[in-house]
Amino acid sequence: MTGEPGTAAAAGTQAGAARDAGVLEIGGLEVWFRDGQGEVLAVGGISLSLGENEVLAVVGESGCGKTVTGLSVLGLEPPGARVSGSVRLRGEELRTASPRRLRALRGREIAMVFQEPMTSLNPAFTVGYQVAEVLRQHEHLRGRAARDRVTELLGLVGLPAPEQRLRQYPHQLSGGMRQRVMIAMGIACGPAVLIADEPTTALDPTIQAQILDLLGRLRARLSMSMLLITHNLGVVAEIADRVLVMYAGHKVEEATAARLFAAPQHPYTVGLLNAVPQPGASRDTRPLTAIGGQVPVLRQAAESCVFAARCPLATDECRKEQPPLRQVRPGHLVACVRPGELRRELAGEAVRS
Domain residue spans in the chain? Predict the structure, then answer.
């Protein structure tokens, strides 16, 4: 991990003070998919609040429901999905909004940087045309005015020679350049909320650092709130103010980034942190430990702790009912009947060894 958790976000204090405003509020969001055997729970009652000018990271293994949560905020869940719950943007309910209203809001008030820019960008159109599409839809810009604005945006996200890049196709750009194009599309209309889905995946460490620095500068410049979806805890430490840990579609822990890294409470969070390599550490002083098993496929609402099958501390109490989220410290929530015990056990073993 690089950087101090949450300190790279220059506006963190301001974000914390404004958190109660809740520019984006999600309440009890549930998403069910249908397969050949029935329904599968993808997101199980997620609730969160994103404050003004705040970065909230949503972390967890692949398949835990992070991306589905982000897509559902925009009403972009796959066809046939059954969705319930509330999504409010500045108090306006999006789940009951008309398709026309959602199209008006997407891109202008709330935008998303999708995974895999090579597949998210259309190979048949130049990147300039694709960025300009947002401006044509929401700003009604055409011709030279649109080209000038696209050039400005590509320069803003750090693309060299933006006048030339806008005439190129996605395959002519590197992975980092394509990611910058996706970010330019996302910020084109200065949205209040940007959902960034794995913005540094498949990029080398140098380009990752550049993208994180870019997102931080854009956040400060545009006073933009960000919902950051990632499995990379190094990214979380670099840019996030708060962290929400998801497992099997459920929120299992939520805290400030500094608090979560200093004192994780849920066994799953402890497992994620212990699986991160530490520079300079040897296998003797800090061996990497994997979390055994796999994320479960839930075909009904959880009736026990969703992590019980993989948890080294699980008891009969954990298997009888799903533990509710409870506050262990101000602003620190955890869904566990034995919060902090695994961290303390591992710390004791380290001292004894």
Answer: 1-109+193-353, 117-190
Of 36, 50, 44, 111, the C-alpha closest to 84 is 44
Cβ(269)–Cβ(282) below 8 Å: no
Residue with tokens 């309440």: 27
- pLDDT string in tens for the chain (353-residue length): 444 444 344 444 443 443 455 899 999 999 999 988 899 999 999 999 999 999 999 999 988 999 999 999 999 998 899 999 999 999 999 999 999 999 999 999 999 999 888 889 999 999 999 999 999 999 999 999 999 999 999 999 999 999 999 999 999 999 899 999 999 999 999 999 999 999 887 788 888 888 889 999 899 888 999 999 998 898 899 999 999 999 999 999 999 999 999 999 999 999 999 888 776 666 666 667 888 888 888 998 888 999 999 999 999 999 999 999 999 999 999 999 999 888 887 665 543 44
Query: CA separation (Å) from 293 to 177, 307, 312, 313?
Result: 37, 10, 12, 15
Contact (Cβ atoms closer than 8 angstroms) between residue 88 and residue 21: no
Task: Quickly count: other Cβ atoms within 10 Å of residue 109's Cβ.
Answer: 18
Q: CB under 8 Å to 309, separation ≥6 — which residues?
A: 293, 296
Please write down the long-range contacts of 259-266, taking CB distance under 8 Å and 24 or more positions apart. Answer: 259/329, 259/331, 259/332, 260/5, 260/332, 261/5, 261/237, 262/5, 263/340, 263/343, 264/343, 265/328, 265/332, 265/334, 265/336, 265/339, 265/340, 265/343, 266/307, 266/334, 266/335, 266/336, 266/339
3-state secondary structure string across 143-208: HHHHHHHHHHHHHHCCCCCHHHHCCCCHHHCCHHHHHHHHHHHHHCCCCCEEEEECCCCCCCHHHH
Q: What is the domain class of 1-109+193-353 according to CATH?
A: alpha beta
